[in-house]
Specification:
InterPro entries: Homeodomain-like_sf, HTH-type_TetR-like_transc_reg, HTH_TetR. The protein is 73% helix and 0% strand. It is mainly α. The chain has a domain at 53-179: Tetracycline Repressor, domain 2. The radius of gyration is 18 Å and the shape is elongated.
């Protein structure tokens, strides 16, 4: 049993039972391995959670690059990333379970810097910035890091409070207007 498979099982368990029910014992049981194997791989629940978050952020980074690459210009790249991120959030079973049943866990992950790691917002900004196209980067205001942080914060505010008078496309248009300097 490899580490990636254990992370898959952890995500599946969160999808079914929530983040609070996640434990190395439950992951081991559902993965069909000895509890000692799970503890050897991760050492503790916090390391398992960190591995899940790390993988999810890496997958988000890949998706952001794909969504941006599908667009011809800076406005399309930023707008596409916003609309597709919102769609991804709505379709992510584990995230939706936790949002419905344990929203405090999400809020904690977004803002907490416990366990020696940065808040989730900071992790996503750091992961996404290296892949920003030069033409987009040159237009981001007030600077690329601040613009990326603003985008992430807007998307996550809509994740936490999904009811909106705006469509995803309208949200994306406003974000684009806020973070891209005119050509």
């Amino acid at each position: 049993m490899d580490r990636d498979r254990m992370v898959d099982v952890g995500v599946m368990l969160v999808s079914r039972f929530g983040a609070k029910a996640l434990s190395l014992t439950s992951v081991a049981k559902h993965a069909g391995v000895a509890r000692a194997t799970a503890y050897r791989m991760f050492g503790g629940k916090e390391a398992l959670i960190a591995a899940i978050v790390e993988r999810e952020v890496a997958q988000l980074r890949e998706r952001l690059s794909t969504w941006a690459a599908a667009q011809p210009d800076a406005e399309g790249k930023v707008g596409g990333q916003v609309t597709e991120s919102l769609r991804y959030i709505r379709e992510n079973e584990a995230l939706q379970y936790v949002l419905r049943n344990e929203p405090g866990e999400i809020v904690s992950a977004l803002v907490s810097t416990t366990h020696g790691g940065p808040a989730l917002v900071t992790q996503i900004v750091s992961a996404a910035l290296p892949d920003v196209d030069d033409d987009v980067r040159a237009r981001l205001r007030p600077n690329p890091e601040a613009a990326a942080e603003f985008i992430v914060r807007v998307v996550y505010s809509l994740m936490l409070v999904p009811d909106s008078a705006m469509t995803d496309e309208q949200v994306a248009q406003l974000v684009v207007a806020a973070v891209l300097a005119p050509e």
